[in-house]
Design a protein that fits this description.
The structure is a single chain. The chain has 14 helices and 13 strands. The protein has about 400 residues and is of the alpha/beta class. The protein has 3 domains: about 5-25 and about 260-285, no CATH class; about 45-255, Rossmann fold, CATH 3.40.50; about 305-400, no CATH class.
């Protein structure tokens, strides 16, 4: 092991030790995330409510629905017949969540379920837009100066007490518009100077929707505070005394990470140790990725001896002034290439040959005709060729071949 690597390891160990010592006595930070998970014991989880729901909804069967969508669950319970369809189940669809993320197909099925004499209880800060449009309601947000909001029921005979709800997040959601002819107000929120509707009952054909905009009232933080559990009991007392189908998809074990690093990432000290290890490895790679072998020498490619030989022979012919011999060899080379590339007979260099070569090669007919003329003239000539004749024929061949 080199000296530089030992130094890197020593630095990393020293940093890890400082982090562990600094974080050992620090209290674990509170997780204020509004997960609304039945497995979370954090302030805005539903662990306590999940354990106490049977005591709150006494003598009512609670069925948890988590593996499928509301549409898939309700549709599987539907029995069609020749006159009017009906459901195998009767009761209340129940859902507590931060926001209304139910898909439109499930909302349509939920309307059909309620229309058959059932009910739906939804406690969430915002509701699906399709549901609000159908029930003629709107939800708005207010930003009070106080962190504590009072909540109470409209029916003083049922419960006349006001309860304080502490919202870690700023903003209260309330019903800013309702259908006053058909909607019953069940609860309010606010203070001495202003009150807002947060709980309503809306009829739909043969059933009812119970809509509530303070889902935090059912969280661990609120249920364990003084007597706030009484408010949750009072809100749920409006639900009909029949079976309850609690939709908990995304609020059960699905919220627990399946990552093998989940425990390490959940602990600040271990998390930072992991991050610093990765950073240290990255730095080590960057500074030790230098090439440590000798420079590979550049090898020049072997010369093309055939080409050099050809040039040498050509220069010998040219220096000897044997122009006729050079022209003959160029003509032989040209005709051999025409036969191999275009499969044209070169026995007779006439008009038929010119037209065939023109069509197959795409070269200018005048250039081909000039070359054929020069070749025929050379073959008919009985006196020696001059250097100018060699240049003229060479240029003509180059035009046709290139």
């Amino acid at each position: 092991m080199s000296k530089s690597i030992k130094i890197y390891i020593a630095i990393l160990v020293f940093i890890f030790a400082i982090i562990l010592i600094a974080g050992r006595n620090q209290p674990k930070p509170i997780d204020w995330r509004p997960t609304y998970s039945v497995n979370d014991k954090i302030p805005y989880g539903l662990y306590v409510f999940d354990k106490e729901i049977n005591g709150i909804l006494k003598k009512q069967k609670i069925e948890r629905v988590s593996a499928i969508t509301p549409y898939e669950f309700l549709d599987s319970k539907y029995i069609p017949d020749t006159i009017e369809g009906k459901y195998k189940i009767k009761g209340t669809f129940f859902n507590i969540a931060e926001y209304g993320n139910i898909d439109d197909q499930s909302i349509t099925e939920l309307f059909y379920f309620v229309s058959h004499g059932n009910s739906a209880f939804l406690s969430m800060k915002t509701l699906p837009q399709s549901l609000m449009d159908s029930l003629k309601i709107e939800i708005s947000t207010s930003f009070p100066n106080e962190k504590t909001t009072s909540v109470w029921l409209a029916n003083k005979g049922l419960n006349s007490k006001k309860y304080g709800i502490n919202e870690h997040e700023i903003g209260n959601y309330y019903f800013s518009k309702i259908d006053t002819l058909n909607t019953t107000v069940l609860g309010y929120q606010g203070n001495k100077n202003k009150k807002q509707i947060n709980y309503i009952k809306v009829p739909y054909i043969n059933g009812y929707f119970y809509l509530h905009t303070q889902p935090s009232a059912f969280t661990n933080y609120q249920l364990l505070k003084k007597d706030n559990y009484q408010y949750a009991q009072s809100v749920l007392s409006y639900i009909p005394k029949n079976d309850v189908f609690w939709y908990t998809k995304g609020q059960n074990s699905e919220s627990i990470s399946d990552s093998p690093l989940r425990y390490i990432l959940s602990q600040p000290a271990l998390r930072w140790a992991l991050y610093l290890s990765l950073i240290g490895i990255l730095i080590f790679i960057i500074f030790n990725a230098k090439r440590k072998q000798r420079i590979v020498p550049i090898l020049k490619p072997l010369p093309n001896l055939t080409l050099d030989f050809t040039k040498t022979i050509g220069n010998l012919y040219y220096q000897e002034g044997d122009h006729d011999n050079i022209i003959d060899k160029k003509i032989i080379y040209f005709l051999e290439r025409i036969r191999n590339e275009y499969l044209i007979d070169t026995t007779k260099l006439d008009d038929d040959f010119i037209k065939k070569l023109h069509h197959k090669s795409g070269k200018e007919e005048n250039d081909i005709r000039e070359l054929v003329f020069l070749i025929n003239e050379h073959r008919k000539s009985y006196h020696g060729s001059l250097e100018e004749d060699l240049i003229r024929i060479n240029n003509a061949i180059e035009k046709v071949l290139h």
